[in-house]
Amino acid sequence: MNQLIEQLQTKLFTGRLNLEARDGPTWTLYFRLGRLIWQAGGSNADERWRRHLLRYCSNLDVTQLEWLVSPQENYREYSILAKLREQKLIEQQQLVSLITSSIAEVLFDIMQYIEAKRNGDNPAGQLSHSTVVGEVPGVLLAVIPTEEVLKQATQAWQQWRDAGLATYSPNLFPIIQQIELLQGQASSKQIIALVDGTKTLRGLGQKSGRDVLALTRLLMTLVKTGAIAFSPTPRLRQVGISKETGKPSSAANNSNSSLKTEEDTVIQVAPNLKKVAPPATSKEIVSPYSAVNNFNSSLKKEENTVIQVAPPAARKAIIDVSRPLVACVDDSPTICRSLEEILTHQGYRFVGIQDSLIAILQLIKTKPDFIFLDLLMPKVNGYEICSQIRKTPGLKNVPVVILTGKDGIVDRMRAKLVGATDFLGKPVEAEKVLNVLHKYLSV
C-alpha cells in the first residue's frame, strides 16, 4: 500500500483511491496533487468521526454538528469541518491535526488488514484498488504531508504488532465478560466505570487520557483471565457498583429495573450523560488534554465526575420542556436583557446569543421554538443568519421575527426573501413582544 500511495504522490494524482476487500471493509483515500487530504470507510467510521470531533472540538456539542450540512451533501463530514472553519469555531492547526490523525488511523487499519490476510494466506481477503480521477471535495481545508502521515501510521502499526496485538484491532469493543472475576481487583470500580461496552479501545483510550496501546496491554491481562472480552460490535453493559455494598451488581433487563438501577448506583455509565453535565465537567470527561499521570487516578477522576454530574433530580430538570424556548440573536446586551425580563416574567424559557458567528450552532444546540433576530450585527448580519436558519432542517420551520430600528420597504422585502416571518421595531416593548409571540407561537 505504501508503494501505491507513493506512486500516486509522484503522479500528482487528484481524485480518490478505493481499497476494497471481498470479505469485508472498504476504504477511500482522497488526494489533491498527490497529497492526502481526507479519508472515509473502514470499521466504525462513524465512531472515528465522533471521537475526533470530541478530541479537537471539545468545546462544541458534537451531537448537533450534523445539522450544519444537508444529509445528502457530498463529502458530508469534510463539509462540516469546512463550516466550522468558516465560522472560526476550529483553529487551522486543530483542523490539520484532526485530518492527519484520522488519516493515520485509516492507514493503520489498512496495514493491519493487509498483514492479517497475508499471514492467513487468504487470497480472497486481499485488497483490490481502483482510482477515480477528479472526485475530491471542492474546498481544500488542509494539505497533509503524505510522507509524514505514512510514517506516523507505520510506526503505530509496528509498535502495536511488536506488543503482540497484531490479531486485535483497536476498533474492537471491550466488554465485561465475567464481572465476578473483577471483584478481587483493586480497581474494579474504575474498570466497570470505563468499560461499558459502548466504546472501542481507541475510544476508551481517549476517554481515560491514556495511549491506546498502553491501555490495551493493560486490559489484555484481564482478557487472559476471562474477566473482559473484545467484541466487534458494541454491547451495552447493565451493571453498576452498589452504593450499599461497594461491589459489582447486575441490573435487571427490563426498563423499569434499569431505571431503578440507574438511580441506586454510584457509577452509572449513560450515553447521554454529557447532556446534563456542566461545561467544565463535561470537558474533564472527554478532553484529551487533561493531565493524566496514571491509569487509576484518571479513572478515579472519571468515577467522581459521574457521581457529581448525574443526580436523578438534575436529569428530571433537564427534560422539563413544558414552556416554549425563545431565542434572541442580537449583539446588544441591553436588548437581550430586556427581552429576557419580559419573557421569563411570562413563564417563557429564554436564551440570548450575542455572537453572530456562532449563532447558528447555538440555535441548533438549543432548538428554540421562536427566534428574535437583529438585522445589523458585526461579523454576520441578520439576513445571512435567517437564510441559514431556513436551510437548517431542525430550524427551518421556526418563526423568525426580525428586530429592527429601521422599517424601510427595502429591508422588509430583503428579509422576507431570506425567510423572515415578521418584524418588530426597536426599542422592544412588552405588549408588542407578547403579541407577536401569541400570533405565531401555539402555547
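Next protein, fold it too.
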Amino acid sequence: MSATFGGAALSAREALRRDPALLERFSDRARALFYARLAFLAIGLAVLAVPSWSLFLGTTSSTAFVFYFAVIAYSVLNYLFIEHPRFGRRLTFVTLCLDLVALCSMVLLSGGLSSPIMAAHGLFTLFFILLFPRKRSIVPPLLILPIAGQLHDSLTSGVVRSETIFLIGWYATLSVIVAYVLLFLHRRDEKRRVQLSQLSKAQETSIVTQERLRLAREIHDGLGGSLSSLIIQAEFIQRMTKEESLRIEITELKSQAEEAIEELRRSLTMMRRDFDLHKALEDYCMRFQERARVWCSLKVRGRTRRLPSEMQLAIFRILQECLTNIQKHAKAKNADVRLKYDGDLITLTVTDDGVGFDPSEQRSGHYGLSNLKARATKFRGTVDVQSTPGAGATAHITLVVPTEGSHVAFLPSMGD
C-alpha cells in the first residue's frame, strides 16, 4: 500500500517544494487531521475511563490501552514533521494508514461493520482525499472494509454473512462518492487557481511592459538627446580649435560620448524581442579588438535557445566585464570567447594569453571578480577563474536558465 502511494509521490513532493501555496495548504490540512485525532483521543479517554462504555465497545482488555498510546505517539510524531520537505508527506500517509488499522481493531472489538465506530471511516476517507488528492488515495480506505468484515465474520460465525457484504458495499459506495466529489472540487479549484495565477502574471507583465516603455522613451529622448548634443558640440569645438593637445582631449571626449550613447542603445535593444544576443556579442568582440588592439574570437556551441532578456543582459555584461579586465590588466595579445548551450546550463568561457594573476590574492580597488559573481548569482550560477602569473587567465561562468516562465517584459521595437 505504501509502495503504491510512493511511486506517484515524487512529483507531488516536487510540486510542493516549488509552490509555497501547495505546501501551506497541505500543512493546514495535516494540522486539521491532527486536531481530529485529538478529538478522537479525548473520546477514547472517556471510553477507557467509563466502564459501561468500555464494555459496550469491547475495550476492556489491556490491548485497548496499547492502541490508545500508540495513536498518541504517532500523532505527535506526525505533527512535529508535517512541514519536513522529505518526510512530511510520507509520514502523514503512513499515520493515516495506521489510523485505519486502529479503526479496524476497534471495529472488530465492537461488533464488526455494524459498529458505530464505522462512522469514522468516512472521515478518514475524507482526509485521504484532502491530503493526497488523486484517485489511488481511495484504495486504503476501501481495502480496510473487506478486511474488517472478513476478520469479524471469521472470528464469530466462521462464514461471510450477507449483511457484511451489504455493509461493505454501502461503505464503499459512500467512500467513492466522497472521493469523487472532493476530487471534482479539487480539480476545479486547481484549474481556477492556475487561471488566476496566469492572469496575475499577464497583468504584471503588462504593467511592467508599459512602465519600461515609458522609462525607455524618457531615457532615449532625454539622455540619448543630451549625449547626441554633446557629440555635436564636441565636433564643433574640435573644428574650431587649433591647439593639438586640446583637439586630442576633445576627440577622447567625443569617443566616450559615442561609446555612452552606443551603450544606451544596446541596453534598450536588449529588452526587445528582436534582440540577437550572439550578434551583440560578436559586435562587442569586434569593437574590443579595434579598441584594445587584442585579437578576439567568438564561438557559439550547442543548441541555441531563446533566453530571458535579463539573462541575455547578464551574459553580455559578464563578457563586457571580462574583456574590460583583459584590456586594463592582462596586457594580452589574444582573447578567446566561447558560449556553450547545454540544456538548462549556459557556459561562458573567456581565455587570454596575458600576464595572468593570482586569483586568491585580494587586490584593493579591483571589483571585476566580485561583479562577475554578483551577476552569476542571480541565475544560480558559478564563477571559476583559473590563472597563474605569466600564464594568462581563463574565466568559466555557468548560468542556469530559469525553469519557469520569465516575468521579464519585452519592449516593442523603437527607433534610434
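About the second fold: Confidence is low (pLDDT under 50) at residues 1-10, 405-416.
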